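Service request form, structural biology core

Requester: graduate student, group of Dr. S.
Request type: structure prediction, single chain
Budget code: on file
Notes: please return the result as structure tokens.

Sequence provided:
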Amino acid sequence: MNKLSFTFIFFIFSCFYAFGQTVSGKVVDEQQQPIPYATVQLGDHTGVVTNTEGEFTLTLPEGITDPVTISYLGYATLEIPLTDLTKQVYVLKEEVTELDEVLVTNKQLGAQEIVEKMMAAAPDLHVLNDRSQTFFMRNRDDQKLLDFTFEIDKASKTSRSDLKTINKEIETLSKNITGSKFRFFTEYYGERLVMGDSAKLNVEKAVILKDKDRDISAEEITKKLVNTVRPYLDKGASYKVKTGIIKIEDSLTTDEFFEEDIDSVKGKTKFVKNSLQWRLRSHNAFYNEENLDFLQKLKRYTYSLEGYANIAGESVYVIAFEPDRSSASFRGKMYINVFDYGMMRLEYEMLEGEKLQGVNLKLLLGLKFREDRIRVTSEYRKNAEGKYYLKFGRKTSGTYAYISRPMKFIKNKEDRSESRQVFKLDFTFEIDNLSTSEIYIAESNAITAEAFAAFEEPENFIPLEIERYDPAIWEGYNIIAPIQEIREYGKEVKR
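Core staff response, request fulfilled:
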């Protein structure tokens, strides 16, 4: 009887532990170094990837008794029964894949031939359409305001003394924030459906982690500029807008100029939709990206077959590429399926001094922009139909922007007797931003046209804005675990 009771209690405890619980841990190699982006998987539909510090948090769903598997490229997969999922640190051991252990085609292909076959197969194998995806996206922005000056030269019906006072206040603001650095995080969890050229998005939860007392972000500066200009333009009136001698708008209404408050729910919803669409495309449609010259202009590079590896049970070629000409922009590695030539993992980084795009009209028009410091990791998985979808993507890119221009708003007269109203300003804005996005696709399932049509897309969503990390916000969600900088955000003493 005692033995039976003990067994029953143990069974109940195991069920309680296994269902509805959240477990955390850290994945390291044999030298105790953290392994970032390792896959921690439970069953077919529940899983996460480790963060850059090798940490994970996994919520265990009800009704699943499968063991948890932890896997990463180049390491032996670790399988852990649920009842043993109590450790804090999990060690992965290196796994060497010998050439003769891998089934390959009769003809030994060269590295460049493999890349060419991958590019030929990619449009059919890597598809976005007719899918429903559960996603988590985290963005990090590190911004530095290099220069910010703003002066109102003329405002009809405003005295010179008032303008002098206003400009003095603006000058003080500029001095206080120029040279400042600012960091903030945004996180989104939801479902995205794609059917043909149409997409629908439901953001179930959105969190903005931002210290408003120290905010000198581009968004906040834009808001300050807009709110400064607003009082001097008549609501409902239309204006000619000039920058220098160039007319950029003949009849801009104030309603169009202030179309969306930068803080509005509508504006933030639109931003997230565009951001997610752009970021997903940059990972999924790699074979169409003209800027990725290592895929489009193969003669610029040297490709070498380093060997073979295993990703999610699939054998892959490991192909490294290095610049062969000065016109090349990247270096990296590709992991291509041995049998169908699908891309399973792609890693690349931009060479120092190179830029993805840019324009320099600083002397002529007071404009300069560039995108550089690109570093990307994309990992793909094969679905039941044999097609590939993005499982995890991380992209870091730097942007530099400079604009120094005069602007003049000239009110269009409704009748000839009306006095001419002019608002004129000069501003300089220079900022450097390093942005990192991480996207994890928890599920990717085929959908029908009927299911897509029936899906109701919320018009807007309301993000939760916090100034200090709160671990309770994401309880019950399988997301990429927060790194230490997020956990400690807001703990520093405010100015």
